[in-house]
Amino acid sequence: MEAALFSKMKVSGTLISLASTQFLLGMLLAEALYPGYSVSLNYISDLGATCRATCIIVQPSSLIFESSVFLLGVLLVLGAYLFRQGSRSLLAPLLLGITGLGAVGVGVFPETAGMLHAVVSLVAFVGGGLATLASFKFTRPVLCYFAAILGTMTLVALVLYASGIYLGLGAGGMERIVVYPVVMWGIAFGGYLTAGAEDLFFRR
């Protein structure tokens, strides 16, 4: 029984790391293929559809980004389900699953969806920051401190971003301070689950 649970934790970690890694690479590739794209001035979701007075969709950037963020969400939901099976926690996998659902929503509802896109993006942002913080109790030093710092960075940056305070980074730059810490955490935490599932299972 315990061996089966350990195996689920390892698979969960693999899925979380894979989700985060492929999203990061997909986003960078979409940026490189989008003519004139600015990481400071453009929102991340502009890669899927850039909507101001009108909406512009640039290919193949749009297809790459939307596919990548959708896959991110699906893999996180699956990873969260397996994480729940192999751990005593409810909160952490629940938050991870909510983050995944938000990411799926971003993939399904780009900027052309208007307010719906803003809502699912917020779900992904908040869920990601809280999931990162919630992983603190499951990880040993120094990774637990890393999780606390990254989760706090995401949530503080989100408040600043929502308030229109960009600290000279531009809207796109501040949005990346919201997103990048969660992606970094996903890669690191997924690796921790994969390599140390036995340790995690026995921790409360």
Radius of gyration: 17 Å
**Distance separating the two termini:** 18 Å
Order of helices and strands: HEEHHHHH
Could you describe the largest sheet, including whether it forms a barrel?
Answer: 2 strands, antiparallel
Number of domains: 1
Give the integer mean of the pLDDT values: 92
How would you sum up the global shape?
globular
Number of helical segments with 4 or more residues: 6
Number of strands: 2
Write up this protein.
There is one protein chain. With 204 residues, the chain is mostly helical. It is built from six helices and two strands, in the order αββααααα. It has a two-stranded antiparallel sheet with strand order 1-2. A hairpin with a 3-residue loop joins strand 1 (50-51) and strand 2. Helix 2 runs antiparallel to helix 3 (91-108) and helix 3 packs antiparallel against helix 4. The longest helix is centred in the C-terminal third of the chain and has 32 residues, at 170-201.
